From TrEMBL, chain A:
Alphabetical keyword list: Cytoplasm, Nucleus, tRNA processing
Species this protein is from: Pan troglodytes (Chimpanzee)
Subunit annotation: Component of the elongator complex which consists of ELP1, ELP2, ELP3, ELP4, ELP5 and ELP6.
Protein name: Elongator complex protein 4
Main location: cytoplasm
Pathway the protein acts in: tRNA modification; 5-methoxycarbonylmethyl-2-thiouridine-tRNA biosynthesis
TrEMBL record, chain B:
Superkingdom of the organism of origin: Eukaryota
Biased composition (Acidic residues): 300-316
Localization (cell): Cytoplasm; Nucleus
InterPro entries, per the entry: Elp5
Lineage: Eukaryota, Metazoa, Chordata, Craniata, Vertebrata
Protein name, as recorded: Elongator complex protein 5
GO biological process assignments: tRNA modification; tRNA wobble uridine modification
The species this protein was found in: Pan troglodytes
Gene from which the chain derives: LOC455799
Principal cellular location given in the protein's record: cytoplasm
Length: 425, 316
């Protein structure tokens, strides 16, 4: 879509450059002027939509997910026309945050929003979006947050390994340059009412749209899903996100957010039974949704309670049908809460899949062990560092615990800690 | 809330537990099993709500009305509004007082009420409904009933709704139980050891971490609650008395701690690969010449002082 447009314009300009060179015979490098364009519009060739930028790898148009740290891990951002699936944590505390960051980013950039939920009224969801941090207050807020986090030892500058001080840390703390792609949000404050009212949003609340006495035919989509797909299709068509409305000059992105897809409140029974009657409903929905997204300027975020899905094969199919899959695993209630390895964090974040769009390789980051922490104002994602291996005199049982817990981490760190036997080198 | 020695401060603590269960509103799910039954706790909660002046509706499906009302005194019995679905679950006798649509219809009808009075609905039990209805329908109905009052825009025109449900865990697989737990605001799992009942209470407040408590209790014949300490713990945690803890910092051949003077001396040391200004001066200073460096060499008996290259006689 956007990449094809770039190629087209480059080809046109080289053609015109060659033509002028043959006339003047001075040099083949000519400045591309207005007469080379052939039409009379004086604007730039490529229309740029606010809040998007082309990827540095292949020119794919990207939008921000609302969390600049997550954008970095996904290779720059979420590509337009793709689905970001978030596997919810067990008590559904942190996944709504990511959902709200995505929507807040849409409001700040002026994108159109479509919020669908079976649990909460979309108007209530929009009232709870985090407030954006503006430039002048940003630095002060971040400094105070970082300062509270710093330990005394980190004040010592490195004397022997001084070159490592120049390496960038995992997360770029602080506001990025003024051409804004990703914004920072204050999770403790609400978005101001006037910003929400000034934005263009559509809500889909399932209990209002559907009457409960509808009969479901077998092997078809659940009526809730059918209505949602029709709603999304109507919005895309009426507002011209798929290019069907040529009068619209100003192009914009549609951000779709679907909350708790697959839960019983949508009428889907994959969380209740292993082999229910409608077990293909969710996968069909995702397939049709991807078709709608690929032909329009939209990006979608879906949160799904995969820990409730009984049939593991469905989870695998759902992962394949989505583009980016991020899993959140919180430590609440699990035995990891008391593990000293994880005491600074609230949970682990797993990047389960990154798509290969118009590409043979995908942009995966080399850091596989990531943990997140919800500070008072920020949601941060950091690399998880294993502690150094302890000496022989420490009791064997604690070493076994660390080996067990470290086994769950990715193969990228510490092969020594894998397996039950603890080998020392 | 840990059971402490002052458990005899009876009524104060008892109210705390029942209050905390009823305070959040929404769906309160009591999960019981064959060994630890939950109907008496359900009746204790019903009695507490009735005494607080709330409107109490009972949707009785599993046991008969007489059995449910047994043990309550007449004051409470008069306050309960009982909908009986046990005697005639399929409504064959076609009487007008039965709700059309069965218990599900009754639940949906309660969604549409508009009184400001807080209401408690005791559902006895969702297990009965799960065996007869699709799980998704029940989840949608329970969610609609328990979330009527959650709109921040309305000024409390609808009172708080609490739905108490008694779920028999062993009748269902992990799927329906998981689905209902994810909808519940408070979940009480009953267990226990050695004749003492234990309640694990999990409270999910919206957008906050869930809180987890355990409480030993027993229910008295008049359905009031008696909080207790747990049974005494007889086994000590296993500790090995033969191996004393070893301090690894004793008997070291190197120094782990630095005194202040040593620390200052260490800080002022210039490391060999640091490019400091002194090193720069040393490199830029003009060399004094060959006279300053001498090589002293004493030839050994076996040394060959021949200056020729041994490879010269190779005929290449």
């Amino acid at each position: 879509m956007a990449a094809a447009a770039t190629c087209g314009s480059v080809a046109a300009s080289t053609g015109s450059a060659v033509a002028t060179a043959s006339k003047n015979n001075v040099t083949s490098f000519q400045r591309r002027g207005r007469r080379a364009s052939g039409t009379n519009d004086s604007g730039p060739r490529l229309v740029s939509i606010t809040g998007t930028r082309p990827s540095v790898r292949n020119g794919q148009l990207l939008v921000s997910t609302g969390l600049p740290a997550l954008d970095q891990l996904l290779g720059g951002g979420l590509a337009v026309g793709t689905v970001l699936l978030i596997e919810e944590d067990k008590y559904n505390i942190y996944s709504p945050l990511l959902f709200k960051y995505f929507l807040a980013e849409g409001i700040v950039n002026g994108h159109t929003l479509l919020v669908a939920s079976a649990k909460e009224d979309p108007a209530n969801i929009l009232q709870e979006l985090p407030a954006p941090l503006l430039d002048d207050k940003c630095k002060k807020e971040f400094d105070e947050d970082v300062y509270n986090h710093k330990t005394p030892e980190s004040n010592i500058k490195m004397k022997i390994a001084w070159r490592y001080q120049l390496l960038p840390k995992m997360e770029q703390i602080g506001p990025v340059s003024s051409s804004r792609f990703g914004h920072y949000y204050d999770a403790s404050k609400r978005m101001p009412q006037e910003l929400i009212e000034a934005s263009n949003w559509h809500g889909f609340f399932l209990p209002e749209k559907i009457s409960s006495t509808l009969k479901v035919e077998p092997c078809s989509l659940t009526p809730g899903y059918t209505k949602l797909l029709q709603f999304i299709q109507n919005i895309i068509y009426e507002e011209g996100f798929d290019g069907s409305n040529p009068q619209k000059k100003q192009r914009n992105i549609l951000r779709i957010g679907i909350q708790n897809l697959g839960s019983p409140l949508w009428g889907d029974d994959i969380c209740c039974a292993e082999n229910g009657g409608n077990s293909h409903s969710l996968t069909k929905f995702l397939y049709v949704l991807r078709g709608l997204l690929r032909t329009s300027l939209s990006a979608c975020i879906i949160t799904m309670p995969t820990h409730l899905i009984q049939n593991k094969a469905i989870i695998a199919r759902v992962t394949t049908l989505s583009d980016i899959v991020v899993g959140l695993e919180s430590f609440i209630g699990s035995e990891r809460e008391t593990n000293p390895l994880y005491k600074d964090y609230h949970g682990l974040i797993h990047i389960r899949q990154i798509p290969r769009l118009n590409n043979l390789i995908c942009d995966e980051s080399d850091v596989k062990d990531l943990a997140f922490k919800l500070k008072r104002k920020l949601f941060t994602i950091e690399r998880l560092h294993l502690p150094p291996d302890l000496s022989d005199t420490v009791s064997r049982s604690s070493k076994m615990d660390l080996a067990e817990s470290a086994k769950r981490l990715g193969p990228g760190c510490g092969m020594m800690a894998g397996g039950k036997k603890h080998l020392d080198f | 809330m840990t059971p402490s020695e002052g458990a005899r401060a009876g009524t104060g603590r008892e109210l705390e537990m029942l209050d905390s269960l009823l305070a959040l509103g929404g769906l309160v799910l009591l999960r019981d099993s064959v060994e630890w039954e939950g109907r008496s706790l359900l009746k204790a909660l019903v009695k507490k709500s009735a005494l607080c002046g709330e409107q109490v509706h009972i949707l009785g499906c599993e046991v008969s009305e007489e059995e449910f009302r047994e043990g309550f005194d007449s004051d409470i019995n008069n306050r309960l509004v009982y909908h009986d679905f046990f005697r005639d679950p399929l409504n064959w006798s076609k009487t007008e007082e039965a709700f059309p649509g069965g218990p599900l219809g009754a639940l949906r009808a309660m969604c549409k009420r508009t009184d400001p009075v807080p209401v408690t609905i005791a559902l006895d039990s969702p297990s009965w409904l799960l065996l007869r209805l699709p799980c998704t329908t029940l989840c949608q109905a329970l969610h609609a009933v328990s979330h009527q009052d959650s709109c921040p825009g309305d000024s409390s025109s609808v009172g708080k709704v609490t739905v108490l449900g008694l779920l028999h865990e062993e009748l269902h697989g992990p799927g329906p139980v998981g689905a209902l737990s994810s909808l519940a605001q408070t979940e009480v799992t009953l267990g226990g050891t050695m004749g003492q009942a234990l309640a694990h209470i999990l409270c999910r407040r919206p957008r906050q971490r869930p809180t987890d408590q355990t409480q030993w209790f027993s229910i008295l014949p008049d359905f009031s609650l008696d909080l207790q300490e747990g049974p005494s713990v007889e086994s000590q945690p296993y500790s090995d008395p033969h191996i004393p803890p070893v301090d690894p910092t004793t008997h070291l051949t190197f120094n782990l701690h630095l005194s202040k003077k040593e620390r200052e001396a260490r800080d002022s040391l210039i490391l060999p690969f640091q490019f400091s200004s002194e090193k720069q001066q040393a490199l830029l200073r003009p060399r004094p010449g060959q006279a300053t460096s001498h090589i002293f060499y004493e030839p050994d008996a076996y040394d060959d002082l021949d200056q020729e290259d041994p490879d010269d006689d190779l005929d290449i």
